[in-house]
């Protein structure tokens, strides 16, 4: 009976947070189909390991950790394959409006080492609290705060360098 209750909790969690779960996967792979595959794979993995869940109150952070891990596994597997963001790809279609999203910021976030990128994505894209991020990445809150500070510092430096390149192009 315990298994059925946990499965129901998992399905409720996935249903209630489906948009945020998809966004989390998409923030790693930048491709709609791959993000959907990751979410589906994460759900499958979660059902297979549902009995390993110690605290049913932490099912959301447990599942988010599975999504992050599955996303990172996907990126490692297809490391040499460069996936173009759907929005950029669509901008090449004739008749589309010219749009220039803030590519410097997106590139800078993607260029961060994995441990920094994860805290940035969870904090600012998923609007998670420090304590929740700590639970997802299985670190203490002070480590999350330090990584967040270091990640923001790296982003600031990276963006400043990009601005300098735009102002003073190297010939």
Automatic annotation (TrEMBL):
GO molecular function (one): DNA binding
This protein's record includes keyword Acyltransferase: no
Species of provenance: Paenibacillus uliginis N3/975
Domain RNA polymerase sigma factor 70 region 4 type: 105-155
Similarity comment text for this entry: Belongs to the sigma-70 factor family. ECF subfamily.
NCBIfam families according to UniProt: sigma70-ECF (TIGR02937)
Keywords tagged on the record: Sigma factor, Transcription, Transcription regulation
Segments forming domain RNA polymerase sigma-70 region: 14-79
Protein name per UniProt: RNA polymerase, sigma subunit, SigV
A Pfam family recorded for this sequence: Sigma70_r2
């Amino acid at each position: 009976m315990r298994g059925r209750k946990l499965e129901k909790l998992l399905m409720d969690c996935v249903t209630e947070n489906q948009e945020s779960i998809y966004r989390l996967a998409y923030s790693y792979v930048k491709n709609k189909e791959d993000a959907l595959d990751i979410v589906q794979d994460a759900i499958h993995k979660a059902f297979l390991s549902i009995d390993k869940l110690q605290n049913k109150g932490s099912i959301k952070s447990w599942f988010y950790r599975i999504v992050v891990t599955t996303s990172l596994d996907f990126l490692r597997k297809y490391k040499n394959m460069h996936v173009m963001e759907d929005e950029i790809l669509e901008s090449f279609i004739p008749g589309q409006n010219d749009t220039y999203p803030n590519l410097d910021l997106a590139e800078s976030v993607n260029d961060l080492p994995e441990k920094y990128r994860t805290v940035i994505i969870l904090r600012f894209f998923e609007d998670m609290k420090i304590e929740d991020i700590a639970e997802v990445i299985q670190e203490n809150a002070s480590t999350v705060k330090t990584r967040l500070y270091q990640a923001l510092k790296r982003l600031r430096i990276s963006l400043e360098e990009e601005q300098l390149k735009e102002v003073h192009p190297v010939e």
